[in-house]
Amino acid sequence: MTFCAAFLVFWGCETPLEDKIASYQTPYEASKTAETATYEECIAFYKRLARDFPEVNIQTLGTTDSGLPLHLVTFNPDGDFNFDNVREDKALVLVNNGIHPGESDGIDATMLLFRDLATEKLEAPENTVLVTIPVYNIGGALNRNSTTRVNQNGPAEYGFRGNARNYDLNRDFVKMDTENALSFAEIFHLVKPDVFVDNHVSNGADYQYVLTHLFTQHNKLGGELGKYLEQDFQPRLEESLLKKDWDITPYVNIYNRPPDQGFTQFLDNPRYSTGYTTLWNTLGFMVETHMQKPYDQRVEGTYEIMLSVLDVVEKDFENIKKLRAEALAKAMEQQRYFLNWAVDTTQSKTLNFKGYEALLPLSQITGLPQLKYDRNQPFEKEVRFQHQYYPLDTIAVPEAYIFSKSWKDITARLDANNIAYQTLEQDTTLFLESYQIDSYETYTRPYEGHYPHYNTQVTSRKDSVQFMAGDILVPTQQEGIRYLLETLEPESVDSFFNWNFFDTILQRKEGFSPYVFEELALRILQKDTILRNQFLDKKALDEDFSQNAYAQLNWIFKHSKYQEKAYLQYPVYRLNNEEVLSGLIAEE
């Protein structure tokens, strides 16, 4: 394509390419690579590109905790910015920047990439549309400083990790405590990207690489799509970079120990950006540059890896779209779903890792051994990398979930993620599967505004449950099936239960006084021989229990009709009968 006719008023056909590029110089370039663009400079830059080039579009979508809206910038050489139209024939790549604004490499690199595509310094892709959120954490970007990234080698100033309400947004994709997360979901479901890239900067050890990658865990992604990511997409990306003399390795998932001892792949559960996008079968990975490398190298490396992504997607867009469609179709057919992944320590592969020798001199501060790396002693060593995971839990996929309309926080998150559901037209009693919370543990320190639960265990039983008109019926056979299973199954690591959305069921609202209940408890045991035998067995086997009068009365109370039904009763029910579901849907 030619820009001469469209931009004669600006350039004239004889304007050299270098002059054209120079007229769209970024703040990063103007500072001789010492500074990153401010939020205001970044948005102004994209607005100017969109004003001057019909291939670039900028729009606002949603809001953030800062009170400012998110922006979405798109480059499409065809000038069509209707995503429903575009995805019929092309692949969509969504790049997220500034989720941690102190990690600003992606902000500057993406500005350069869009500029170079718009000015034709780069050949525009024919089969791929590039979309970006220029700065996701706006509140953090506005909180600009030069001290909070204490280990980082530039830029001169940068944003802060926490957002306007001090949330780490890369822990918020499921719980959605922030306006940012709600707006991201709106953007994600508008774009429906085939590939998602989240640009980051990391530390934890020293090594020779500027670039590392953190792909979504391929076993968890699953099926042929997971195989493609691990065996095809990732190697081709690495090969593309190597041709440009950019070496890369998997994200070095360690802290305060040498990487030559080996390391495991980071597990991106749904709370993280790529874990969330995986729930919709999007190929996702994080770029993780090394914060101790010079800023210009990190920005250039981020630019090159995004360019390589476009190259791989451009050549294989039809296959990627086909595999994603097949993955969704198989998800809709599956009868069982895997949850809660753990590293398989019996399997590993060898990386030819380029690091530095680790030393342990005595610290002048503590007098104890201090881990240091000697950059004068680079090495290449074979290092074990464990990147195979297996599921700890398997559940049967229900036909639908049902819960009371009173749980408005849940329906709000279903709405944000375009989950289809219906409301019951009339009061009805249904026979379905019910969960009792058997046990759980809770973190004792706050984590992103919560005290999350973990190691949750449930018991399943069949129950007749009364529902009211207006209660929520959520069929699982829809595009968001994986999202539903990960959030509504209480044992899942990032379930709504584990994120404290149902904590009111964990507290009894009624109880007993021992001096009153003692006689009633005796009558209960006298009338129920099975319960009495269980009670006597527990006393015989559990010495602490046998010496605790209140614990014994409480055990009887919990096994009697007097215990309130809401206590430890998980309020989301599983409907496993397809015929009943069809009848309920027909009523609508």
Would you kindly provide a written description of the structure presented here, covering whatever features stand out?
- The structure is a single chain.
- With 588 residues, the chain is an alpha/beta fold.
- It has four domains: 317 residues, Zn peptidases (Aminopeptidase, 3-Layer(aba) Sandwich), CATH 3.40.630; 42 residues, no CATH class; 140 residues, no CATH class; 45 residues, no CATH class.
- Helix content is 34%, strand content 23%.
- It is built from 18 helices and 19 strands.
- It has an eight-stranded mixed β-sheet with strand order 1-2-4-3-5-9-6-7. A four-stranded antiparallel β-sheet has the order 15-18-14-19. Strands 8-12-11 form a three-stranded mixed β-sheet, with no helix packed on it.
- Helix 3 packs parallel to helix 5 and helix 5 crosses helix 11.
- The radius of gyration is 28 Å and the shape is globular.
- The two termini are 52 Å apart.
Compact overview of the structure:
By secondary structure, the protein is an alpha/beta fold.
Write the layout of secondary structure elements.
Layout: H1 17-22, H2 27-30, H3 39-52, E1 56-61, E2 70-75, H4 83-89, E3 91-96, H5 105-118, E4 128-133, H6 138-142, H7 179-191, E5 195-202, E6 211-215, H8 218-221, H9 223-243, E7 248-250, E8 263-264, H10 273-278, E9 283-290, H11 295-333, E10 336-343, E11 349-359, E12 372-386, E13 389-396, E14 400-403, H12 408-416, E15 422-423, E16 428-442, E17 453-467, E18 472-475, H13 481-488, H14 514-527, H15 529-541, H16 543-546, H17 549-558, E19 572-575, H18 578-587
Parallel strand pairs: 3-4, 3-5, 5-9, 6-7, 8-12
Antiparallel strand pairs: 1-2, 2-4, 6-9, 10-13, 11-12, 14-18, 14-19, 15-18, 16-17
Helix pairs in contact: 3-5, 5-11, 9-11, 14-15, 14-17
